[in-house]
Amino acid sequence: MARSVHAYVRGSTSKFYEWLKASGMESLPHGPAVWICGDCHVGNLGPIANAKGHIDIQIRDLDQTVIGNPALHLVRLGLSLATAARGSDLPGITTAKMLENMSDGYEQAFADTAVACDFQKNRPESIQIAMRRSLTRSWKQLAEDRIEDINPTILLGKRFWPLRADEQREIKILFRRADVRRLATLLRSRNDKDPIEVLDAAYWVKGCSSLGRLRYAVLVGIGDPPYEGESLCLMDIKEAVQAVAPRYSRARMPRDNAQRVVEGARHLSPNLGQRMLAARFFDRAVFLRELLPQDLQIEIEHLTRDEAMKAAWFLSAVVGQAHARQMNPSIKKKWQEELKRHRTAKLDAPWLWSNVVELMVSHESEYLDHCRKYALQST
Asked: Where are the domains of the chain?
């Protein structure tokens, strides 16, 4: 998080909502009750494969998903893009135009079906790079990135810690369940009736979000040995906790946090949602998903002016599509009218501009204070 203000924004979700609430959320357009991911920054968008191998750019992280105001997505994404532009030494005028492009990209997702579906073909270069990497990725690359070894074992060290005996037993019990076996054999190249075997497992230390929570990597063999390629399955087990993103008070959501995450994923990111399962582990809510080589996050740490414009438009269109698929024609029309009502003669989305600017100031101050504390601890 001390690496850049862009990285700090990614790691400070709860503070984002504290700052937004303090600055006045009443300035936002009041959107319809739809599933939102709750943490819509650039790194949480990227190529996602479905069970049949088809890849689309969708939302990758649904831990914070709730039914709430879709305008929150745009503010969070706008802040993320603005800090990426700042880190790329782009002038303020680029940020202003980038936020206007966000408004255009988002609203085009509510156009007629043919236009809305076609936008995925107009990917900017930074997105095309991620897609090309995604399409050519293999199990070997996934294993080297995630478990640092292409053999069917998980190397213990800073990232992976050994399990206690009770954790090992719980994982074996979990993977005897029929629904977990179906999840592991979901890909089209696997046989639904194939047996599965837990080959190795470890506690996964993965960033700030893992601290104090259950997080496991489980390596599973499918079918008969020897296991290699798509007969190997790397499962991620992650504890689901209470979301900090604000929800609409009258919205009905699953009380179980893991079920909430899976339900939100199915609405917002169908490619990912169909590959997820809610479960209990030590009587705590967890969700499981298989990690595929094609699943990548978008990295846009350094942007050119032209690329910033295109990326802002495209990523907002992805978010708009995730919202639009949850709305019927009548609700879409009302939401479009609400967005138009918040326009002025000079700005398409003054609410987006004013909130992003205020949040940029707050985050810059907090980021510098974070760096000061980090520097003192490092000396």
From this structure: 5-136+297-378, 144-256+267-291
